Amino acid sequence: MKNWPMKSYLTGIYLFFYIPILVLIIYSFNNAQYSLVWHGFSFRWYQELFSDNDLWISVMHSLVLGVSAATIAMCIGGLTAISLFRYQFFGRQLLQGLIFILILSPDIVMGIALLILFSMIQLQLGFWSLLLAHITFCIPFVVVTVSSRIVSFDEYIFEAAKDLGAKDMIIMTRIILPLLWPALFAGWLMSFTLSIDDVIISYFVAGPDFEILPLKIYSMVRLGVKPEINALCTVTFGLTLLLIILSQLVLRKKP
Amino acid sequence: MKHHDAGLKIFSLGVIWLWLIVFALLPFCLVTLASFVSHDNAHLLMLPATLQNYLQLNNSIYVKIFKQSFYIAGMCTLICLLLGYPFAYAIARMKSRYKSLLILFIIIPFWTSSLIRTYSMITMLKPKGIISSILMWTGVISKPLPLLFTDTAVMIGLVYNLLPFMILPLLTNIERLDNRLIDAARDLGANRLTTFRKIILPLTMPGIMSGSILVFLPAMTIFYIPDLLGGSKSILLGNLIQNQFLIAQNWPLGSAISVVFTLLLGILLLIYWRSSRKDTQDLL
Amino acid sequence: MATNIIELRGVSKSIHGHGILHGLNLEVRNGEFLTLLGPSGCGKTTLLRLISGFEEPTTGTVFINGKDVNGLAPHLRHVHTVFQSYALFPHMTVYDNVAFGLRCQKLPKAEINARVVEVLRTVKLEKYANRKPDQLSGGQQQRVAIARAVVNRPLVLLLDEPLSSLDYRLRKTMQIELKQLQRKLGITFIFVTHDQEEALSMSDRVVVMHEGQIEQVGTPRQVYEAPQNLTVAQFIGEANIFDSEILAIDGKQLTVNIQGKQRQMKTNRSFDVGQKVHILVRPEDLRVWGQSEVDNSNEMYPGVVEEVIYKGTTVDLMVRLANNQLVAATEFFDEDDEKLEYTIGEAVWATWVSGWEVVLPYETS
Q1: Predicted TM-score of the model (pTM)
Q2: Tell me, what's the pLDDT at B190?
Q3: In the predicted model, what is the mean pLDDT of chain C?
């Protein structure tokens, strides 16, 4: 039951979540370098942000990485979820266990594990090491998203299609994909967001030549609070917000 | 059932297994192997095999860091549980049409970059930051409050980042709670406290466990939160491992730390799993 | 076309060492409406799946139109299945659902269109061609499922409990519709159900199954009026069973002793003197008389009315006989019958017209 102690408690928690971010957003428009006092509204820091070339390069890199990783993870993760639902095969439970372990693994363990792998196969740290790493940690999330949608299917749809003469490929293209695309897209969005925001794993497998945004932010933040960072965070937060709303809308769609 | 066109199945399974074995299973095995080898200035990993790395961990410094990390992660989990459970309970049982909107407002912080959220905390906690300024302005304190670079700051930062990880699993779990069970308990004469203790709490235990795991694990291993909010004083497990790999270039030791950490965690999970199975068996 | 469109010889099926079907032999005649009837777990759905090709028999052979179909993929067998949940493709229109099988065969567009339109007309759904399944009622969805299967001109249509998810009224309507549809199409229907009333009302022949065996195959009348054994008798319709022993045999006439009184019975089966038997009397054949109405109680059994259940068209009486056996009698309202109102606790006489009983060999349950 909602009464006022509960209502104020809930409001308190929401405020706890959002006030720091709102403060950040507000101060990104503050016309002052270090002061906390309001010196007037200004787009100054955004202008500095948009003229920072290095930053833009890292943004481009992150976008390219994110799109590639999300797309490949969506394909592999989607195939995994579909295969787990449709087929009986040797080691099925092992596969599910592996996915489960991947989700639970702390980022840092995965980061060092991949670092060791890449150094052993002598892969140069850079775009490819990042891509392979990002795909790997995104796959389980796609599997979970797609699996939760696919289990609501009537399992006899596949038998009916087979009964009527459909080959596996037809079943995949004419039945599974049309019904599953919202979940696949949501998985893509989730992977893209995870990739754009990943710090820990990227920290270990990134190389000096391919700068990505989260690591750039991290190094900037370590040097101290700077107003451009406020602007950068505001922009990033806004984009994340858009992506989340988009993904929620897509997931709500009925077939 | 016979498969007359198994082409797609073979392709799918082939790709999946290949990828997961090479990029998931293999790396984890390599970490375990790496923990048993040596290193020197020229080679990150080299033979001979040795138990040296594990023996090194017996050093009081490392033990202290382990203990500290477990303690902080545990406290963080507890705080998140105490803050998050009533919140999740209230929202899950809500019948308002704003419910999905309210849930969206939890999902947003969950998906926002953790780094950005941690950074926003810095602004709040600085000596001349928001919290300090407000407290001074209202006259509660007279000097700027040095919240940043303390253990408290790290704790606040961890809770701030990880609270959604506790709330969301609890939400899904509590939403599945069958109202009729609560009605039945009340009908049979249980008061609110008893209903909570005997019906609601046990039934929501899976949600509590999921949330706790999702908070505890990262709390031990996210290195940038202690780094940014705690400064150089704060060394938790995540920082230690990061340090060994990227600064001290002692990969075998870093691997050994990771392996020990994973084992300890595995034991904790096993104990929980055993005890929950035993409970069910006792009930039967 | 062979007269027996489907034949099973010595078919057994085990799954994980668990025996589901045991050495079945069955002949399905071309053009008939055949029902597989039995309780849950009797193997009727498995049998259906052996015919459709989704399972293979462990031993034995399945013949479709005279051909051995062992190992043949489902879609190559010229039989199609209507699933219990209909399994319509939710994202496709009715038209696309029905056309699906034809498109898989890569038939020319014009032919596909002609056949789909024709079959939709047959199931009276031609106006719904562009609707999606979730815009249709349960009965309409079922007709789409049938249309989708039938448009491919299968030799046999297999229906796996298609009416079980419909409510009572709709079920009754669909039963009649299905029967008419089958006659119109002329295709053999093999129908699976656990509802014996449904089986009796729709089928040309009924296959009564129990625990992986076929107990009896016959017309509805045959399985109801002349059940082969106790299992069939008790599964189909209600049954009052009197246990007895044969005292004497005279050709087709038997003398038995029931509750201390001797009776004559007729039977076509052969028995031996001294053999134990079950005597089956259907509730509608059991007569109940009040004390005042009876003069000669030679072949009547005394009892007490325990329950009176008024059902609108009939009255069911539960009578506790003197030997503590509970029997059920169903009486139709007859305006000429003086006494149809019995009270609980009233003493009555129960009997039946000679010849209306069925004598069955004794079985230990």
Answers
A1: 0.82
A2: 81
A3: 89
Cβ atoms of residues C245 and C275 within 8 Å? yes
Q: Domain B55-283 adopts which CATH fold?
A: MetI-like fold (1.10.3720)
- SS3 for B272? helix
Q: Closest to C104 (Cβ–Cβ): which among A157, A165, A255?
A: A165
3-state secondary structure of A75: helix
Helix (H, G, I), strand (E, B) or coil at C161: coil
What DSSP letter does each residue of A182-238 carry, written as one string?
A: HHHHHHHHHHHHHHHH--HHHHHH--SSS--HHHHHHHHHHT---HHHHHHHHHHHH
* Structural domain total, chain A: 1
Q: Is A65 inside a domain boundary?
A: yes
Number of H helices, E strands in chain A: 12, 0
Residue C339: per-residue pLDDT = 61
Average of per-residue pLDDT values in chain A? 87
Residue owning tokens 């202008």: A47
* A41: DSSP letter: B
pLDDT score of B284: 45
When CB atoms are compared, the residue of C75, C85, C91 closest to A156 is: C85
Cα separation, C47 vs C24, in Å, equals: 9
Nearest CA in chain A to C80: A163
B2 contacts C73? CB cut-off 8 A:
yes
CATH code where residue A159 lies: 1.10.3720.10
Q: For chain C (length 365 residues), average pLDDT per consecutive 10?
A: 86 90 93 94 92 92 92 89 91 94 92 94 92 91 93 93 88 90 92 93 94 94 91 89 88 83 84 88 88 78 90 87 88 67 86 86 76
Residue A15 domain flag: no
Inter-chain residue contact B2 with C54, CB threshold 8 Å: no
Domain boundaries, chain B: 55-283
Is A126 a domain residue?
A: yes
Whole-angstrom distance, CA of residue B220 vs CA of residue B231 = 16
% residues pLDDT > 70 (chain C): 97
Does the residue A30 lie in any domain?
Answer: no
Residue from the list C75, C105, C149 with its beta carbon closest to the beta carbon of A162: C75
What is the largest distance, in Å, between two alpha-carbon atoms of chain A? 73
